[in-house]
Amino acid sequence: xxxxxxxxxxxxxDLVRIALERAGWQVVTAADGQEALLHASRExxxxxxxxxxxxxxxxxxxxxxxxxxxxxxxxxxxARDDEVDCILGLxxxxxxxxxxxxxxxxxxxxxxxxxxxxxxAQASTSLTHGExxxxxxAHRCQINGQxxxxxxxxxxILALLLQDPARIRSRAELISQIWGAGSQVSDRTLDSHxxxxxxxxxxxxxxxxxxxxxxxxxRLRGLS
Length: 224
What we know:
Layout: E1 2-6, H1 10-22, E2 26-30, H2 33-43, E3 47-51, H3 59-67, E4 74-78, H4 83-91, E5 96-99, H5 104-122, E6 127-129, E7 132-135, E8 140-143, E9 146-148, H6 152-163, H7 171-179, H8 187-203, E10 210-213, E11 217-220
Parallel strand pairs: 1-2, 1-3, 3-4, 4-5
Antiparallel strand pairs: 6-7, 7-8, 8-9, 10-11
């Protein structure tokens, strides 16, 4: 697997690169936003580790541009423990984030978790609910024949809901299943992914498809 690592700090970049290579991954590095976009286009990475505070173009803008043409998993690195920044990153299409300082081992574990969930979803059979269909193996989602581009996290959430559309999944269950047991992911992080997923489904005609049952959890309901 090829990972694009983007950070303007050369010492941190080298430290993380070594950790990723030891984990068995090929690593391509970039020091600024423009270089990141160039490598994202030319190298076709399988995963992107992206610092927010970049020169030229910041990580938010890089993520936004990449999401215009690709759903490659993206994990943000942020030097600020600011939940607003982290939520903004998720709403732009990132799959997760790690706050600096962090241990390379933690970063590798986060990447493995995202990949594991993505690969597990891809191994699933096609799922349908009314006019909504999801083929995890092809990473293809449609409503009434209209294609919907989903991130790895969004696909994971939707696949879990589609397994039993009438079943109400608690927030704790969704977080545990998508991010892993014992994860410290907050409800606001989950809400950001759900908000993005709802918006994409509604834009394709799936109005109010994801239902929030107050004080209980989340489930799917029939297309309106």
